[in-house]
Amino acid sequence: MVVVRSWGRLTQDHHSLSPLVDHPPQALPLPAGGQGLAHGMGRSYGDVGMNPGGTLWLTNALDRMIAWDAQTGELTCEAGVLLRDIQSLFVPRGWMLPVTPGTQFVTVGGAIANDVHGKNHHVHGSFGDQVCSLRLLRTDGSSLHCSPSTLGDWFCATVGGMGLTGVITQATLRLIRVPSAWLDTETVPYQSLDEFFALADASETAWDHTVSWIDCLSARDGGRTVRGIFMRANMAAATEFTAEPARPNRVRKVPFAPPFSLVNRASLRPFNTAYYHLHRRAGASRQHYVPFFYPLDNLLEWNRIYGRAGFYQYQCVVPRVHGPDAVAGLLREITASGQGSFLGVLKTFGDRQPVGMMSFPQPGVTLALDFPNLGVKTLQLFDRLDRVVAEAGGRLYSAKDARMPRALFEAGYPKLAQFLPFRDPGIQSSMSRRLMGW
């Protein structure tokens, strides 16, 4: 067995690794009575991609692109293809993934299974909205071809289904035409939640991509006075399709995990203050898609900066009607705890329902924060944050979670009972055992 860590580095668990190398795979190797789980790049923060003591089916070798239709923009590829591979090949040709998360080191299968989202949910929805069809291999040897119109219930269970309905082996995605590889961006500082929501509302119709960085340590007046940087962007109407920036940013790597977190009370406030003052002047610029969509990809193994104890990401979404009060309540609890986050992201989701039964995005506002693992102190803070989210009728993102209470999971995902019959009995994860009982 081999030790495998999640991206949050919270645990070191032993797994049996079984690469899928056939094109396409015909069966899922599994010891008698054992449980398996598909595993791609391992970028899930929590335990959704972990199966301690069991098998991980590695999908990295399923990296072939199979078919491309330049008339419709439909790409058929295997599930181990990276989003980076798609972007670097097709952006120079004038095509792009409509939705992409904050890293391009994600497999297509992982993006579908966790129904990832980007900065443009109000325009294109989540990743699952871009999937035309997929192939699903079950542990009983059956293979299903699913789409919104063919085996649509299986499709909806698999998109956002966290890999629990089977192994996605192939998918057909819908790409969009883009005029260039660049974006016209604008940054606007804000000083309160009211300003943030006003900017978000005003930007929805004119800007495709919107997101904000929030300084959670600056919250005052019950959490409503808080500073941040609002960023919005549209694809630039240019003729340049350079696959990489003219002067590529130097890629660096964190060489090892230090014995303690470099993100701590001594460093966090100066970091946040410096970041805010660096970006506090409103302005426009033209930015290549790589640093805009994937700002952390220039620092490989960045998760090591949180030290050997690892870190949690807490991401929630609450309905828009409760958004201002809920976000203020979350910030109050964080301020009172003395803990905080440098990577604080606050953004809105559009008024559209997700494709997947278990998909995270819903109309409203989402807050995502990274916290160093300080043990009981951090978990107690999360319990208080959970109460704010629950009272607002929100939910947490399963793909990033490592400790959500089962009651909050069941309340936040009302289609859970509808989803469970589609689970593959030969597939389990740490997350499924913790939140579903098996």
| Shape, per Cα inertia axes | globular
- How much helix, percentage-wise, in residues? 10-25%
CATH architecture of the domain at 182-412: 2-Layer Sandwich
Write down the Rg.
21 Å
Mean pLDDT: 94
Instruction: Compute the separation of the termini in Å.
Output: 22 Å
What is the number of beta strands? 21
Task: Flag low-confidence runs.
Answer: none
The CATH topology of the domain at 182-412: Alpha-Beta Plaits
How much strand? 15-25%
> Helix count?
12
What structural class do the secondary elements suggest?
Answer: alpha+beta
CATH class of the domain at 182-412: Alpha Beta
Q: Biggest sheet, strands in spatial order?
A: 16-12-14-13-19-20-18-21
Major sheet, described briefly?
8 strands, antiparallel
Summarize the structure.
The chain has 438 residues and is of the alpha+beta class. It has helices spanning 83-90, 108-113, 121-124, 152-158, 193-203, 265-279, 289-293, 323-337, 376-391, 406-412, 416-419, 430-436; strands at 2-4, 13-19, 36-39, 55-58, 65-69, 74-78, 95-96, 131-137, 143-146, 167-174, 176-177, 182-190, 209-214, 228-235, 252-253, 283-288, 299-300, 311-318, 345-349, 364-372, 395-396. The mean pLDDT is 94.
Written description of the protein model:
With 438 residues, the protein is α+β, with helices and mostly antiparallel strands. It has a domain of 231 residues: Alpha-Beta Plaits, CATH 3.30.70.2520. Helices cover 24% and strands 25% of the residues. The strands form 5 sheets. The chain has an 8-stranded antiparallel β-sheet with strand order 16-12-14-13-19-20-18-21. It has a 5-stranded antiparallel β-sheet with strand order 5-6-10-8-9. A 4-stranded mixed β-sheet has the order 1-2-4-3, with no helix packed on it. A hairpin with a 4-residue loop joins strand 5 and strand 6. Helix 8 runs antiparallel to helix 9. The longest helix has 16 residues. It is globular. The protein starts with a strand and ends with a helix. The mean pLDDT is 94.
